Amino acid sequence: MDKSNAIEALHALAQDTRLATFRLLVKHGAEGMAAGDIADALGVKQNTMSANLAVLARAGMVRSAREGRVIRYFADFDGMRSLLAFLMEDCCGGNPDLCKPVLDEVICAC
Predict the structure, then answer these.
(1) Cβ–Cβ < 8 Å for 22, 61
(2) Where do the domains of the chain lie?
(3) In terms of DSSP H, where are the helices of 1-110?
(4) Residues of the chain with pLDDT > 90: what percent?
(5) CA–CA distance from 68 to each of 30, 34, 52, 77 (Å)?
(6) Which 3 state secondary structure label does DSSP give 81?
(7) Which of 24, 39, 71, 110 is 20 to 30 A off residue 65, Cα-Cα?
(8) Residue 109 has pLDDT above 60, yes or no
(9) In whole angstroms, what is the distance from residue 34 CA to residue 12 CA?
(10) Does the CA dihedral 91-94-96-97 come out positive or negative?
(11) For residues 22 and 86, which has the higher predicted lDDT (pLDDT)?
(12) What is the largest CA-CA distance in the chain?
């Protein structure tokens, strides 16, 4: 990920509804959620949700799959890993013990 992509991803996540959407999709993992179900869960109008999902998709934070007339959305974990890798690229100045608490925090305990 380059600086421009990182800024776009951070911008996408720096809004309340989009951040809540991403976190909700992370919780739903591989099953994802239909766009209408996301809107219902967050109490957002469907057209507003569509606009927010488009911003997240352009930023590489979510991906989608069409299932007939329904579009199912998923957190894009590759996009998030790329963002985290970019943010921590020069972490710790050669002292990995300084990064261990951060890495422990983001490791999935699923």
Answers:
(1) yes
(2) 3-106
(3) 3-13, 16-28, 35-42, 46-58, 77-87, 96-106
(4) 74
(5) 18, 11, 21, 24
(6) helix
(7) 110
(8) no
(9) 20
(10) negative
(11) 22
(12) 51
48-62 pLDDT, tens digit each: 999 999 999 999 999
Please return the burial class of 75, using the count of CB atoms within 10 Å of its CB with bins 0-12, 13-18 and 19+.
buried
**Phi, psi at residue 2, to the nearest 5°?**
-100, 175
* Statement: residue 110 has pLDDT above 80: no
Count of CA atoms in the C-beta half-sphere (13 A) of 12? 24
**pLDDT tier at 105 (50, 70, 90 boundaries)?**
confident
Residue-averaged pLDDT of the chain? 91
| Closest alpha carbon to 21 in 74, 78, 69, 84 | 74
Instruction: Report the candidate in 28, 31, 30 with the shortest Cα–Cα distance to residue 41.
Output: 28
